[in-house]
């Protein structure tokens, strides 16, 4: 049955998720925190270089976007049989794209690639999912997709303002939608779990509902046992341990380091993925948090060796190497990048140029 919402809500940032149990003003800082901090001493030449940059899309990201576009188109055309086949193939093969992202994750991201965010868009997608489940009532794929939509809807209803600006009616709907997502996806997360993205949905539910450490630990133990190489779990759990959500100062850093030190090469790569996800919350993640450069350096080496075709990974690695003050590595990475600017990896073009200048000259 389609869920109808009656309140008018503001646009929501996709990664802006509030745990209302925390200090509301602290919890509702910008979703990007300090977004890389102040960029110092940008001179006129650097500003001109930045103005002349053109955004690049690497071949791997282009392939992912095309895949997601095909999935979204099939969903809008209600070609549910095709979607079931694609999801099953992705689950069974556990294949990844050239940046290490799992095809099954990109499948669900494609389903969620709506044209804008509005009640109308969400209602329309829920009606499509209703028809999918009417046609295929036992489809785990449709249930997981519905859970993802309901969590998207919950954060949309909650809005992007401070907690004190959220009405009681919005809070009620927020929790109702999260509960609905949990009721659809929770039963799938058991010893017979076949789809790792169900775990991602449940981690998002856990964040919104404010699960206890023991509840998180139980969920993570199951997910790690079933899919030990699915790095998205570790990234999402580290995110939930930021002080603005369920953690205290130093919690996410300790968790990430434990992963890095206990899981061999994969652990170092997961450590870097965590840093990629959290780097925007700090002026310099190695200076302003407990993140450590040595395990990150090892992880970067392995990531770049495993996924050499990803321009976006190369770009994010150059940013991290600069923040880690590893000029030799940063210079090598910027030499490969040249003028290839990928918007998602940087605060702005000026930051890209400034970091590149430091790598080449040592002048900050």
Task: Explain what you see.
It comes from Puniceicoccus vermicola. Residues 15-29 have a biased composition (Basic and acidic residues). This protein has 364 residues and is an all-alpha fold. It has a domain at 60-212. It contains 18 helices and no strands. Helix 7 runs antiparallel to helix 8 (168-185).
SSE blueprint and pairings:
Layout: H1 24-27, H2 44-52, H3 59-76, H4 80-93, H5 103-111, H6 119-135, H7 140-158, H8 168-185, H9 196-209, H10 213-226, H11 232-240, H12 251-262, H13 264-278, H14 285-288, H15 293-306, H16 311-323, H17 327-337, H18 349-361
Helix pairs in contact: 2-18, 3-5, 6-7, 7-8, 7-9, 8-9, 9-10, 9-11, 11-12, 11-13, 12-13, 13-15, 15-16, 16-17, 17-18
Region (Disordered): 15-43
Organism: Puniceicoccus vermicola
Biased composition (Basic and acidic residues): 15-29
CA(first)-CA(last) distance: 58 Å
Listing every helix as H and every strand as E from the N terminus to the C terminus, the arrangement reads: HHHHHHHHHHHHHHHHHH
Q: Give the overall pLDDT as a whole number.
A: 89
Structural class: mainly alpha
Count of β-strands: 0
Q: Report the β-strand fraction as a percent range.
A: under 5%
The stretches of 5 or more residues where confidence is low (pLDDT under 50) are 1-39
Number of helical regions: 18
Rounded radius of gyration (Å) = 21 Å
The major β-sheet equals: none
Question: Any idea what the shape is?
Answer: globular
Helix content range of the residues, please? 55-70%
């Amino acid at each position: 049955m389609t869920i109808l919402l009656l309140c008018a809500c503001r646009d929501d940032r996709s990664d802006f998720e509030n745990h209302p149990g925390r200090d509301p003003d602290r919890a509702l800082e910008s979703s990007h925190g300090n977004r890389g901090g102040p960029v110092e001493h940008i001179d006129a030449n650097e500003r001109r270089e930045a103005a002349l940059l053109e955004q690049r899309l690497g071949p791997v990201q282009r392939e992912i976007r095309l895949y997601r576009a095909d999935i979204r188109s099939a969903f809008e055309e209600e070609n549910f049989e095709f979607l079931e086949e694609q999801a099953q193939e992705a689950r069974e093969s556990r294949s990844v794209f050239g940046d290490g992202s799992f095809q099954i994750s990109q499948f669900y991201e494609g389903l969620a690639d709506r044209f804008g965010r509005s009640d109308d868009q969400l209602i329309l997608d829920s009606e499509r999912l209703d028809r999918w489940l009417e046609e295929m009532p036992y489809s785990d794929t449709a249930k997981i997709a519905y859970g993802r939509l309901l969590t998207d809807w919950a954060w949309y209803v909650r809005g992007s303002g401070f907690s004190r600006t959220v009405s009681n009616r919005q809070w009620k709907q927020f929790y109702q939608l999260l509960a609905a997502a949990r009721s659809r996806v929770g039963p799938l997360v058991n010893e017979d779990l076949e789809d790792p993205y169900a775990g991602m949905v449940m981690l998002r539910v856990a964040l919104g509902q404010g699960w206890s450490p023991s509840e998180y630990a139980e969920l993570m133990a199951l997910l790690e046992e079933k899919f030990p190489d699915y790095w998205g779990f570790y990234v999402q759990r580290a995110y939930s341990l930021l002080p603005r959500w369920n953690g205290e100062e130093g919690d996410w850093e300790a968790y990430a380091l434990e992963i890095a030190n206990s899981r061999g090469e994969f652990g170092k790569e997961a450590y870097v993925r965590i840093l990629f996800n959290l780097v925007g919350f700090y002026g310099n993640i190695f200076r302003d948090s407990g993140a450590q450069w040595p395990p990150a350096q090892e992880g970067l080496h392995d990531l770049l060796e495993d996924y050499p075709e990803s321009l976006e990974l190369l770009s994010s690695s150059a940013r991290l190497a600069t923040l880690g003050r590893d000029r030799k590595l940063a210079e090598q990475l910027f030499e490969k990048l040249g003028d290839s600017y990928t918007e998602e990896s940087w605060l702005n073009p000026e930051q890209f140029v400034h970091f590149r200048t430091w790598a080449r000259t040592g002048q900050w």
